[in-house]
């Protein structure tokens, strides 16, 4: 609901549509009517537009996109044009956030005043869109091309002080905000000169040609494959080159094209997927969570050090344990070095760094975990070691403490079985670097208590991670899917593609890096350990690529030994194709009677990505993942899958499951039982359904 109030010569229109004062059809209608009424009332000299609660306006309702309600009149276009044309000054009084369409509404006002907690942003680019209602035309005219472009292409919020500095806000009001806004409006009634909206204020840039091509090159590099940033630039360029009305029309046309395109749908899918992932299915009742105020981390290696930082960053004290002083010192030094790098980049103050370091305490004794509410184990990936460690934790940890493992693949149920309290045991699978990567697979064991699951999911949020609940199997969701993906990549190089060609095809598809560059980065010994473990259960008649094992036998473990699938110059991470490896691949193929020939990029992408999809379908059917969008969340946030393709399951849906299924059947005929179509995929394809429909 929205109320219109009068205060002397100033009409106040208040957006009131909880929770974010979203621009629903009703809200637009009421603002429009409020403005008409104020314009028709000779006693009213100015209009203040403000928001109820602690927010101005969060923008359009995402769920209304692509629905008739979104375009029903008065549209936001009509409303903003009406406001802009008003002879009486309209003042946006921004207390709290003004995002997206909410900020565009404010930009169509003649003046803007802000409270100290105000924040303004045009975040549409993050959902694969551009501001669709004048944002790209009005903001450059208001504050100049360069800062406007930065806000529109970056999508990040600007606070009140910065808004004043940039010229977005005309005044910063401390104290009674509404009184201050009304006083400002009163002053504006006395202004005889035209109100600023009438003035073309675009600060033209000296050499616009160069400016925009530089911006395009930067966006293409930093946002490779994303169309929206380039469209943002095109619209701001139109603001410079075209009259206002033509610029607005251009922006509208580009907005609609993006709105109907796959990329924006994919990004919106991921936006909702991330929120959905936090919901836990199958809990007996709403669960009380256990308080987590002190955490223990076991193992100060690559993962343990990063995990300790995650908690210190969230102001939670951590005890970090190692078996030997030397390893502990190395871990603590790694943490200090990581923080120091952040400080040197100006992203953390020295004072905060010291505070965080002060929260991490090193120890060599299990007894130091006696008061911990949660202990996360990150020792070697070896079941025997893990069981021993959990047996010790069982002895020293207090009743009710949660015992978690960061294992990437091992059986959480078996680990839990080495304690007397399997209900308190859970998997917390962080990704490397743990202090940076936002994904956290929360692995629910067969006996994990419901409140432990609920606590872990809530904890994920409090340490700024995206928690995705998964079940127990070799590799959970992410690493399990990685297995057939890597398998196909290895088969493809035996069949005639070069290492570089496979990586390039998948990089061009949008992956952050190709599978071989990734394997070299992670360390080839990690994959080998997993293959050795799987060897016992791998049927002997199935094809197996020995290439990676033989590379390991040469002492090449990837970047850390400056050689793996590629070679690396000393202290460089740039992969250089290595003829020695190509020769090794040819030899392996010859020995295994594999026919070599040209392999197309299309084949590379389909063989690897469809392998992900087929495995994803099995994971879904086995209920290892709660929903297909969770698999997408895992793959985009943990494995470098291009966000603008929405994740492997959304990508499959967007191609059509019938087509994906048909191709997988063809691979099955050509390459045998690895490619047996997942029953769920087959069923959905035949019923004309999508993964997202189940
Ligand atoms: P790492 O080898 O860097 O570190 C392991 C640390 O554990 C070493 O510092 C070692 O001294 C210590 N340690 C061994 N036994 C111990 C014990 N009984 N008590 C205390 N400390 C002990 O290994 P990393 O890479 O950190 O992996 C640790 C775990 O995290 C493994 O289970 C691994 O599968 C998992 N993981 C690894 C990822 C990665 O990218 N490296 C990603 C996700 C999970």
Automatic annotation (TrEMBL):
Reactions listed under catalytic activity: a (3S)-3-hydroxyacyl-CoA + NAD(+) = a 3-oxoacyl-CoA + NADH + H(+)
Main location: other
EC main group: lyase
Pfam families: 3HCDH, 3HCDH_N, ECH_1
Residue ranges of every copy of the 3-hydroxyacyl-CoA dehydrogenase NAD binding domain listed in the record: 295-470
Compartments (UniProt record): Peroxisome
GO molecular function: (3S)-3-hydroxyacyl-CoA dehydrogenase (NAD+) activity; enoyl-CoA hydratase activity; isomerase activity; NAD+ binding
Keywords: Fatty acid metabolism, Isomerase, Lipid degradation, Lipid metabolism, Lyase, Multifunctional enzyme, NAD, Oxidoreductase, Peroxisome
Record-listed E.C. numbers: 4.2.1.17
InterPro entries according to UniProt: 3-OHacyl-CoA_DH_NAD-bd (IPR006176), 3HC_DH_C (IPR006108), 6-PGluconate_DH-like_C_sf (IPR008927), ClpP/crotonase-like_dom_sf (IPR029045), Enoyl-CoA_hyd/isom_CS (IPR018376), Enoyl-CoA_hydra/iso (IPR001753), NAD(P)-bd_dom_sf (IPR036291)
3-hydroxyacyl-CoA dehydrogenase C-terminal domain sequence ranges: 475-568, 604-689
Biological or metabolic pathway of the protein: Lipid metabolism; fatty acid beta-oxidation
GO process terms (BP): fatty acid beta-oxidation
Assigned protein family: Belongs to the enoyl-CoA hydratase/isomerase family.
UniProt-recorded name of the protein: Enoyl-CoA hydratase
Lineage, top ranks: Bacteria, Pseudomonadati, Pseudomonadota, Betaproteobacteria, Burkholderiales
């Amino acid at each position: 609901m929205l109320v219109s109030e009068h205060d002397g010569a100033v009409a106040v229109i208040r957006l009131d549509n909880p929770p974010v004062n979203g621009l629903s059809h009703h809200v637009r209608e009421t603002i429009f009517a409020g403005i008409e009424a104020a314009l028709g009332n000779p006693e009213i000299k100015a209009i203040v537009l403000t928001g109820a609660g602690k927010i101005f306006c969060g923008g359009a309702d995402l769920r209304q996109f692509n629905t008739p309600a979104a375009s029903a009149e008065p549209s936001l276009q009509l409303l903003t044009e009406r406001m802009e044309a008003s002879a009486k000054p309209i003042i946006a009084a921004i207390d709290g956030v003004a995002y997206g369409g909410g900020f565009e509404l404010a930009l169509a006002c003649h003046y803007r005043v802000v409270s100290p907690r105000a924040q303004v942003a045009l975040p549409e680019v993050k959902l694969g869109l551009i501001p669709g209602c004048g944002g790209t035309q009005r903001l450059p005219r208001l504050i100049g091309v360069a800062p406007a472009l930065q806000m529109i292409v970056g999508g990040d919020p600007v606070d009140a002080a910065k808004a004043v500095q940039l010229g977005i806000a005309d005044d910063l009001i401390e104290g009674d905000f509404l009184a201050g806004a009304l006083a400002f409006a009163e002053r504006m009634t006395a202004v005889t000169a035209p109100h600023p909206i009438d003035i073309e204020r675009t600060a033209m840039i000296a050499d616009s040609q160069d400016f925009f091509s530089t911006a395009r090159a930067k966006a293409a590099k930093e946002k490779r494959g994303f169309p929206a940033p380039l469209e943002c630039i095109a619209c701001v360029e139109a603001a410079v080159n075209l009259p206002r009305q033509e610029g607005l029309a251009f922006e509208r046309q580009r907005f609609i094209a993006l709105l109907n395109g796959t990329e924006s749908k994919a990004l919106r899918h991921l936006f909702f997927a991330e929120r959905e992932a936090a919901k836990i299915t199958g809990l007996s009742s709403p669960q009380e969570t256990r308080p987590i105020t002190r955490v223990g981390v076991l193992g100060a290696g690559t993962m343990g050090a990063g995990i300790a930082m995650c908690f210190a960053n969230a102001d939670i004290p951590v005890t970090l344990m190692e078996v030997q002083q030397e390893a502990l010192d190395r871990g603590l030094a790694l943490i200090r070095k990581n923080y120091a790098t952040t400080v040197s980049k100006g992203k953390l103050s020295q004072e905060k760094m010291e505070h965080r370091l002060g929260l991490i305490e090193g120890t060599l004794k299990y007894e130091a975990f006696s008061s911990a509410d949660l202990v996360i184990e990150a020792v070697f990936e070896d079941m025997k070691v893990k069981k021993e460690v959990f047996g010790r934790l069982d002895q020293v940890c207090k009743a009710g403490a949660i015992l978690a493992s960061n294992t990437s693949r091992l059986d959480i149920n078996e680990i839990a079985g080495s304690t007397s309290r399997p209900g308190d045991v859970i998997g917390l699978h962080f990704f490397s670097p743990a202090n940076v990567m936002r994904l956290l697979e929360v692995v629910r064991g067969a006996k994990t208590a419901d409140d432990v699951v609920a606590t872990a999911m809530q904890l994920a949020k409090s340490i700024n991670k995206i928690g995705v609940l998964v079940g127990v199997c070799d590799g959970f969701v992410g690493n399990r899917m990685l297995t057939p993906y890597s398998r196909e990549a290895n088969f493809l190089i035996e069949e005639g593609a070069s290492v570089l060609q496979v990586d390039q095809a998948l990089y061009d598809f949008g992956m952050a890096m190709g599978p071989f560059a990734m394997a070299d980065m992670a360390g080839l010994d990690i994959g080998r350990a997993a293959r050795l473990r799987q060897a016992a259960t791998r049927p002997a008649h199935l094809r197996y690529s020995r290439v990676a094992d033989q590379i390991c036998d040469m002492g090449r473990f990837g970047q850390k030994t400056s050689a793996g699938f590629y070679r690396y110059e000393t202290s460089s991470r740039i992969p250089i194709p290595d003829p020695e490896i190509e020769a090794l691949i040819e030899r392996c193929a010859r020995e295994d009677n594999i026919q070599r020939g040209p392999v197309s990029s299309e084949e590379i992408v389909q063989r690897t990505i469809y392998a992900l999809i087929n495995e994803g379908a099995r994971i879904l059917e086995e209920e290892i993942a709660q929903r297909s969008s969770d698999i997408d969340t895992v793959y985009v946030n943990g494995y470098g899958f291009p966000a603008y393709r929405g994740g492997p399951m959304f990508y499959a849906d967007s191609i059509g499951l019938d087509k994906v299924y048909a191709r997988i059947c063809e691979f099955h005929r050509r390459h045998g039982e690895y490619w047996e179509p997942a029953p769920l995929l087959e069923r959905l394809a035949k019923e004309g359904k999508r993964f997202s429909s189940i």
